[in-house]
Amino acid sequence: MTSAPPGGQKIADLIAAGRTLSFEFFPPKTDEAERQLEKTIHELAPLRPSFVSVTYGAGGSTRNRTRDIVVQVNSSQPFPAMAHLTCSGHTRAEITGLLDEYAAAGVHNILALAGDPPADGSDPGGDFTYATELVELVRAHPGDFSVGVAAHPELHPRSAGDRAADRRYLAAKLAVADFGVTQFFFEFDDYVRMVDELDALGCTTPVLPGIMPPGASPLAGLKRMAGMNGSVIPAALLDRLEASADDPDALRDIGVEVATDLAQRLLDAGAPGLHLYALNRSASVLRIVENLGPDFRSPG
Ligand code: FAD
What we know:
Bound molecules: flavin-adenine dinucleotide
Number of helices: 11
Low-confidence stretches: none
Mean pLDDT: 95
Largest sheet: 8 strands, parallel, barrel
Order of helices and strands: HEHEHEHEHEHEHEHHHEH
Number of strands: 8
Helix content: 40-55%
C-alpha cells in the first residue's frame, strides 16, 4: 500500500491519529508581505505542523491569492495546506470551479464557511446562505475533500444571543463535516461549555480550539478583530495589554504567557489539537510551542 503524499493527507485522518498542531495564515497583499509569509513558513516548518490553513476574502476578494498560496504550500511542504472558502455571494458554478482547481492541484482539505454579508447590508447575491450548504456541495464534489467548519465558543455574532438555536445549527453543521475549528477566545470555560452543549445534542465531531496570541498584532488590531468576531477580551487581560500597548515586546510576552496557559489547559481537558492564529508571524508561535514542550502531541 502506498501512503498519501504529504499535501494529500486528510485533516480528518490526522485528527483521528492524535493531537494536531496547525497554523493559520492570511494571503499577503504586497511583495514585502509575501516575503514575510515565506519567511514565517520557513521558520515554523521545523515545528512539523499537522497542517496550515489560509484565509479567503469574503465574496472572493482573495480567490486567486488564497488558491495560489494553498497550492504552493501544499505541494512544497511536508504538511497539507487547507483552503478556507466562503460561499456568501458566490454561485454554485464559481465554487465548483475553484474546487476543481484544488482537486487537480492535489489539495484535499477545505474549511467551508458562510462568510460575512456586505457591511452595508446589501444583498450579496449568489446561491448560498449558510455554511452547511457549502459543506454539502464540497462533499458532493469528486475531489474527495476533508471538510472543516467554523465554530464560535462565545456564539456567532449573528446568533443574537440565542444560545440554543446557535448550538443546534452548529451541531447540525458539524454532523455533516469532519471537524470544526473555533474562532479565537480567551476563556477556557467558553470552549468547554460549547463542547458540553454539543455533546448534549449528540454531536461528537472534533473541534480544534483556535488560539490568538494577544500581542502578535498591535492592540488596536486585536480589539477590532475581537469586536468583529464576538470574542470578548477579559477585562483583566485588557488592562494588562493596555498598560503595555506601546511596548511590542512586553505585549508579546503577555500574549505568549496567556496563550500558553490557555493551550495547556485545553490540552489537559482533552482538546483534539491546537490551531494557532499566526498572523503571518512566527515569533509568538515559536515560543508558545516551545513552552508546551516537544511531546504535547503524543496522547497523554
Ligand atoms: P454559518 O455556520 O452559516 O452561521 C452563520 C449564522 O447563521 C450563525 O448565527 C448560525 O447560528 C446561523 N445559522 C446557521 N444555519 C442556519 C439556519 N439553517 N437557519 C438560520 N440560521 C442559521 N471569514 C472569511 O471571510 N474568510 C475566512 O477565511 C474565514 N475564516 C474563518 C475561520 C474560522 C476558524 C472561523 C471561526 C471563522 C472564519 N471566518 C472567515 C468568519 C466566518 O466567515 C464568519 O463568522 C461568518 O459570519 C459566518 O460563517 P460560518 O461559516 O460560521 O456561518
